[in-house]
Amino acid sequence: MDKKLSKTETIHLRKKHISEACQLFFKEDPLKIVRAERQYMVDEDGNSYLDCINNVCHVGHCHPYVADEACKQIRILNTNNRYLHDNLVLLAKKLTETLPEKLCVVYLVNSGSEANDLAIRLARHYTRGTEMITLDHAYHGHVSSVMDISPYKLNTNVDGSHLKPDFVHVVPCPDSYRGKYRDDKYSPAEIGKKYAEEVKDTISKIHQQGKQLCMYIAESMQSCGGQIIMPEGYLKQVYKYVHDAGGVCIADEVQVGFGRVGSHFWAFQPEGVEPDIVTMGKPMGNGHPVAAVVTTQAISDKFKASGMQYFNTYGGNPVSCAVALAVLHVIEDEKLQEHALRVGNYWINKVKEIMQHFPIIGDVRGRGLFLGIDLVRDRNTREPATQEAQTVVRRMKDEARILISSDGPYNNVLKTKPPMCFSEENVDEFCSKLTEILTDLQKVEIQTVLGDIIDNVEKSTTSARDLNQNWGRTAAVS
């Protein structure tokens, strides 16, 4: 395409041809991004933005090795997986080497939504159960089957066209900070136990209704729910309850896998559990559409025995597999998992230092390059500071060209999950601007409080003066 559109023309054509249901970041003043490299994105005027939110371009935007491997393969062959091809089996081998031994069968698909949809099918065929357990605020994708288990989206539906099915059971999100069981009332172990018992109680109710559990699904760290880290012992207890009831456990690693937590390659691993099915997507292709489901031989055998063949036109094609293999190579070659641990620890410690000076930061949580900053108006009540969070997001973009987002049930959690090449220098830049913005917000709060005090004093003075005048008139009459 020779002609370059102006930003105004792009906006006009988008409004004309693209559904408004497809929302933009910063919709009041959207960015037109024309190129990107590593952890930076560049707009049409050449302005460079620090990307703190793109967990899709996992090893860095437009990584040259990944791009070269994709180009090389697409010039040679791109077809479906019904023909033998080395890339498919080499990718499957590489993925299973990062997982527990029992997870040895790989299905290649195109997106996290497809992966979770297939995981549901596998669970149904294996257990023959009907009932599914999901977390409140969960998001597992945009196709109908996974929308059923995504309260994050279902709860926003206003026309009644897509309601939660009766076979889906929603249990509380195990949020230790502002959930049902909080860290100001219970110890970490007690919190994990109490949230796990919610799952146990739900399973009991399912059995009382004469129904069979099919599956429990959870992101290993919940992203849309507000960057939630699982409480101590929670997943271990939940997995036991689910397995004892004949169900399978699905770990959704679509947002948080591939070394992002730093200490481990997969985010379920720090919890000391072994899922029956793992789904993965976004970072796997560094922006290219490729995803996977990995499961046990037993579950896969039951799926095959159902009589339905599984064929995915683009899943496992040579180009997608070449891209995913390149991503895995870069993670290992550039030691990005170790990098995520070091930079992530540096980041969370820096924000905790800032927290000591600003009461608006109620909680800082995360692992590796997955960080949430929970903004509050009162640390005791933990009232969410939603408006203030939006101010931070907007000013970060407008004044410092730093891109972050907010999320959680109250949209008050500053959310960061940058490309894995994010550096300590980037952290310093982020923290410097955050400190400046929070200082301004604190000044506004102090001025507001002082204004209220002055108003109250003036009202009290006026009341006292009126009282004295009334008393004087009364005395004169007497």
Task: Summarize the entry for a quick read.
The protein is an alpha/beta fold and 478 residues long. The chain is built from 13 helices and 18 strands.
Write a structural description.
It is a single chain. The chain contains 13 helices and 18 strands. The chain has helices at residues 7-17, 64-74, 86-96, 112-127, 144-147, 151-154, 188-208, 234-244, 297-305, 318-333, 336-355, 386-400, 424-477; strands spanning 33-37, 40-43, 48-51, 105-109, 131-135, 168-171, 213-219, 221-222, 228-229, 248-252, 277-280, 291-295, 361-366, 371-378, 383-384, 402-403, 405-407, 413-416. The chain has a 7-stranded mixed sheet, sandwiched between helices. Strands 13, 14, 15, 17 and 18 form a 5-stranded antiparallel sheet that branches. The protein has a 4-stranded mixed sheet with strand order 1-2-3-16. Strand 1 (33-37) and strand 2 (40-43) form a beta hairpin. The longest helix is centred in the C-terminal third of the chain and has 54 residues, at 424-477. The protein is globular. The N and C termini lie far apart (95 Å). 45% of the residues are buried. The model has no long low-confidence stretch (mean pLDDT 93). One of its GO terms (molecular function) is transaminase activity. InterPro entries: Aminotrans_3, Aminotrans_3_PPA_site, PyrdxlP-dep_Trfase, PyrdxlP-dep_Trfase_major, PyrdxlP-dep_Trfase_small. This is Alanine--glyoxylate aminotransferase 2-like 1.
